[in-house]
Amino acid sequence: MRVLHITNWYPNVIQPGETPFIRRHIEALAPHCENEVWHVEVRQAGERRTLKHGPAADRTFIRISPLERWYLIEWLSTLMVLWMWWTRDRSKRYDIVNFHVAYPLLTHQGLLRFFIRKPFVITEHWTAYHFQFNTAAKGLDRIRRIFHKGTPLICVSNTLAGDIAAFAKLDRLPVAIIDNVVDSAIFHPAEAPAPVPGRFFGIASWRAVKRSDVMIKTIAILRRRGRDAELRLAGGGKGLQAMEKLIAELGLEDHVKLLGQLDAQQVADELRNAHALMHCSDYETYSVVCAESLCCGTPVFVSDLEAVNEYLEADMGRAIVPSDPEVWADEVEAHWQWTLDTDRRSISERMTRRADAASVGKRYHQVLQQVVANNGRLPVVDIAANTQPAAKL
């Protein structure tokens, strides 16, 4: 099978590390399919220029423009896809076209289908559906219509599928659920697990939805209770200044460390050494960091999130509600020894079977085969019945 992947986000010369989760999905298919990747994007910025080369995609067409009207960006994106299709190597034949992130590439889906005439499938990761794109603009109806065409949809969680259905005002969708990919060559347990008691780790692109304040305050409470707790936080983001201020206000400079950006190997090392991962967040479509932690065998203290509950088993950690530092401190203290004594190799084996590239790639390929065999269709799923969260821990 030959798959053409068209994506609005991909590693590029401006941001070489952009959206690794899309790249990992595509690479997981490589043992089963012949992949070709086109990165097609209108990027909003004050300058005007065009990039036609990238470090990762087979073909790149990034138009940098100060355009602000989204209907113009939608049309320009459509025309760019059509130009790429018109100028393609015509000796190549594709069995299916996989769009990664539907908007804005598929706003004018009917026009693209008229010219491309191959089965389409959408792979979706975007949290924006949950937040209704933070707007009530009439233009949202153009996005909603993308999902009214019956195009098969692949989501990384039932939770995300439910968000898209609610956003599009649909009860049923032709959807399959395929996990994000965790690199099990990096995220695996130590040969002889020896976590450091009291050393907790967290990582995010820090912003309001990632509740670093709860985690920092939890450490302060634990220390007041006599626990030798420390927190190591990796990642960048707009929230760093507020985090530094809170750490200083609580006198935690020696006990909460901001590590900055770490590479994947450094993150894995932190996870293997950690007592547990702390991940307090108002929302997730999947939470790759929780999956990476579990693949390392490291249990998690995480917000009670439906997407994480889809894979978090009872002995893998604790789902905590609400986002209250006192409640978090109670849960961490109550399960202090339990998280140290849990069988980390067993946790890793089960999560790796679900989320490593071999497993995800096999399931992904099966879905694409099904779409091709059924003339571009997937069975329609009752979303309300398919998105019930796992039992609370």
Question: What descriptors fit this protein?
Answer:
disordered C terminus; Rossmann fold; eight-stranded mixed β-sheet; 16 strands; 393 residues; six-stranded parallel β-sheet; single chain; alpha/beta
Question: How confident is the prediction overall: mean pLDDT?
Answer: 94
Summarize the main sheet. Answer: 8 strands, mixed
What is the CATH-assigned architecture of the largest domain?
3-Layer(aba) Sandwich
**Low-confidence runs:** 387-393
Short description:
With 393 residues, the protein is α/β, with parallel strands linked by helices. It has 15 helices and 16 strands.
Q: Could you characterize the architecture of this molecule?
A:
The structure is a single chain. This protein has helices spanning 20-29, 70-86, 109-116, 140-146, 158-168, 212-224, 240-249, 264-273, 288-295, 306-309, 325-334, 336-341, 344-355, 357-373, 383-386, and strands at 2-7, 34-44, 49-51, 59-65, 96-100, 120-124, 153-155, 172-173, 175-177, 199-203, 230-234, 256-260, 276-279, 300-303, 317-320, 381-382. The chain has 393 residues and is an alpha/beta fold. The chain has 2 domains: 2-181 and 361-386, Glycogen Phosphorylase B (Rossmann fold, 3-Layer(aba) Sandwich), CATH 3.40.50.2000; 199-354, 3-Layer(aba) Sandwich (Rossmann fold), CATH 3.40.50.2000. An 8-stranded mixed sheet has the order 3-4-2-1-5-6-7-9, sandwiched between helices. A 6-stranded parallel sheet has the order 12-11-10-13-14-15, sandwiched between helices. Strands 8-16 form a two-stranded antiparallel sheet. Strand 1 (2-7), helix 1 and strand 2 form a beta-alpha-beta unit. The longest helix is centred in the N-terminal third of the chain and has 17 residues, at 70-86. The protein starts with a strand and ends in a 7-residue tail after the last helix. Mean pLDDT is 94; it is low at 387-393.
